[in-house]
Amino acid sequence: MQHGGAQVRARNEPNPGIFMVFGLFRTRNHNRVIVDRQYAALSAAARMPDLYARLDVPDTVMGRFEMLSIVMILFFRRTRASETSGQELAQEIVDAFFQDIDHSIRELGIGDNGVPKRMKKFAGMFYGRLESYAAAMDGNDRLALAAALRRNIYPDQGEGAPSMEGLAEWMVAAERHLSGVSETEIATGSATLPQPEV
């Protein structure tokens, strides 16, 4: 499955009771430590306080989903230029991302019957963001990127929503930072994202 130049493919193996549509969550054992390390680093980046305190991301459950989606998208855009092993790592990290969402949904008390429907909704949201952000970034259009962020993060506020230009600038800077990350860092799950400059 090609999205915005990032190779993110859904797996075919069914996983009963969990997200049957995409069949995620099968991670190769030999990559487990690397995947865990990189996913933890991306998750930590998505929780950087200045993103919420100074760049207008709401510190809510959905705000954190939006930021985790953003850092995943940035990582996928970096690994599209990697060797096959880097692209496979990216796939396993998206598996971990959706597994994390599945776990969070279940913690909210959603029963087995309701989980697949909600997972499908979150997957659609994620891939829609991947496409819209990639289109703006590929065109070096920061205003279009800010507008897409505004629509997604503040869908109900219209003209009253923050401009999100600061977050768009951070995404551009983060992508530039990731372009300098070595293939060794990618292969070992050691890629990081920069702090916002405010």
Describe the overall structure.
- This protein has helices at residues 32-46, 49-53, 61-79, 84-107, 115-138, 142-153, 165-179, 183-187, and strands at 2-3, 6-7.
- It is mainly alpha-helical and 198 residues long.
- It has one domain (32-187).
- Strands 1-2 form a two-stranded antiparallel sheet.
- The longest helix has 24 residues, at 84-107.
- The chain is globular and about 45 Å long.
Secondary-structure topology with pairs:
Blueprint: E1 2-3, E2 6-7, H1 32-46, H2 49-53, H3 61-79, H4 84-107, H5 115-138, H6 142-153, H7 165-179, H8 183-187
Helix pairs in contact: 1-3, 1-4, 3-4, 3-5, 3-7, 4-5, 5-6, 6-7
Secondary structure tally: strands: 2
Could you give a short account of the major beta sheet?
2 strands, antiparallel
From the alpha carbons, calculate the radius of gyration and give it in angstroms: 16 Å
Backbone shape? globular
- Helix content percent band: 55-70%
Sheet with most strands: strand arrangement: 1-2
**Count of helical segments?**
8
Strand content: under 5%
Compute the average pLDDT. Answer: 84
- Which stretches are low in confidence, meaning pLDDT under 50 for 5 or more residues running? 1-27
Pairing-aware structural class of the strands and helices? Answer: mainly alpha
